Amino acid sequence: MQHALALHTPSPSRRVPYPAHLVAHAALRDGTRVTVRPIRRSDLALERAFVFGLTPQTRYQRLLSGRKLLPGELRRLTDIDYAHELALVAIASVEGREQMLGVARYVRDDAHEAGSAEFALVVGDRSQGQGLGETLLRHLMRAAAEDGLAVLTGITLSDNVRMIGLGRKLGFRAHREAGNASVTELRCALDDARAEALHATPAFDDALLWGAG
Ligand SMILES: CC(C)(COP(=O)(O)OP(=O)(O)OC[C@H]1O[C@@H](n2cnc3c(N)ncnc32)[C@H](O)[C@@H]1OP(=O)(O)O)[C@@H](O)C(=O)NCCC(=O)NCCS
After folding, report:
1. 17 alpha carbon to ligand 1 midpoint, in Å?
2. Which of 32, 123, 172, 187 stands 20 to 30 A from 115 (CA)?
């Protein structure tokens, strides 16, 4: 079974520059304006505050366990090698200070299946149900398709109706893991038709959503 966090990639090669073309802006259902952008090494403090602010239930759903992230793991999640992985963060300005509201990431997994990547997604508790998970996953899928990936997979708890509902909405198929019914794999082929559909049906009728993408 794949690991939910995929922390096993090589250390950053620094050969691939920051993918600034992936910066975009979105509006959530409650009107909150967010910037969706690739994570940067300098986001460590924002990432730490975000992760430590998650409720135990949300952390459990993300990590598929009750463990806490170690400082080295947080650094590893922030200081990424864009040649092998991508993390898109949603940043809002709250009382003049930047705050991370959610993050979606994928890590290439060619050793397991050529052209595939494993994704993970988490939205902070106070921002859930506002369309942010969908926004982040759409942007991640588009970026993955543009990066030449053919398949995106992810694992979630089988009782995580939100994640499975969101995945299905965006074209993922859900399969229970053989021999472990408590875990479900989500899988989506990133063909041209899927990429077109992601462009054609944004989460909101808000030109801002795809504006700077
Ligand atoms: C799962 C998660 C990422 C969803 O993000 P979100 O911002 O709350 O979801 P959104 O508001 O974008 O909802 C998008 C779609 O998800 C689906 N969805 C949301 N809540 C749902 C529910 N309770 N039941 C079924 N489907 C649901 C719907 O299709 C929804 O679209 P709609 O609002 O047009 O009906 C978020 O709840 C989360 O971070 N949970 C904890 C961590 C986690 O479970 N990560 C997944 C493991 S990788």
Report:
1. 31
2. 123
- For residue 9, being part of any structural domain is answered with no
Q: Which of 175, 209, 183 is nearest to 64 (CA)?
A: 183
3-state DSSP call for residue 147?
coil
User: What is the number of domains present in the chain?
Assistant: 1
Buried b (16+ CB within 10 A) or exposed e, 184-207: bbbbbbbeeebeeebeeebbeeee
Distance (Å, whole) CA 67 – CA 57: 11
Percent of the chain with pLDDT over 90: 74
- Say what the pTM is: 0.90
For residue 212, being part of any structural domain is answered with no
Test site for ligand 1: of 2, 7, 103, 166, most ligand atoms within 8 A of the Cβ: 166
**pLDDT tens digits for 136-187?**
999 999 999 999 999 999 999 999 999 999 999 999 999 998 888 999 999 9
Instruction: Give domain status of residue 2, yes or no.
Output: no
